Each structure stands twice: as C-alpha cells, then as structure tokens.
C-alpha cells in the first residue's frame, strides 16, 4: 500500500478507536490518551500499544478485545495485535482538550 492509502486507513482506525469507551468513563479511549502507538504495516498487519487509566482496571480485557475487533473491521487491516503497556504511566495531561472538558478538568 502507498503512503496515501496508509494515511486513509490510519484515519479510519482512529475513527474506530473513538467508538471504544471504558465502561466507567464517558470518553473514548483515543481522546483519553490511552492509545500510545498505531503501527500499520504495508501488509495490513496492525500493532497498537495502549495503556489504562489504572493498572488494575477491571475492564482491561473487555476494552482490549473491543479495540481489536473494531480495528480489524476497518478495510485494509488484515489483523490487529493490541499490546498493553504501562510506560509511560498515563496521566490526565494525555487527554485531548475535549476529554478534559467532558470530565470537568477544564
């Protein structure tokens, strides 16, 4: 795939990530700043590094599987691997302005 195709697919991946929510927080995982890396290979293999707002999040497995299933539905994504990482540690400064506003941090 060429760079233009790759950018369009990555935009669709981000749109799809914005449909995934932590059940305890009314903001999507992308705007919360939980997505650290989106790495789409030319062959359609996708690797996402993400974190959680807290390491002991009870919904971790649900969120990760929801992300994997949704991004694999994007045309151009052959398969997705979602890695859970805790470096760097998440903090509220990683959220978008919209997320901060929604959660009352502004």
TrEMBL record:
InterPro entries attached to this UniProt entry: Fe-S_Maturation_MIP18, FSCA_dom_sf, MIP18-like
Residue ranges annotated as coiled coil are none
Q: Which residues form the MIP18 family-like domain?
A: 10-82
State the name under which the record lists this protein: DUF59 domain-containing protein
The source organism is Phocaeicola faecium
């Amino acid at each position: 795939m060429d760079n233009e195709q790759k950018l369009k697919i990555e935009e669709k991946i981000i749109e799809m990530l914005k449909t995934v929510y932590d059940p305890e927080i009314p903001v999507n995982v992308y705007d919360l700043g939980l997505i650290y890396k989106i790495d789409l290979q030319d062959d359609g293999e996708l690797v996402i590094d993400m974190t959680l707002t807290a390491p002991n999040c009870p919904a971790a497995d649900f969120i990760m599987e929801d992300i994997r299933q949704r991004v694999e539905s994007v045309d151009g994504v052959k398969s997705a691997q979602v890695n859970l990482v805790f470096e760097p540690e998440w903090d509220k400064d990683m959220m978008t302005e919209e997320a901060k506003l929604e959660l009352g941090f502004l």
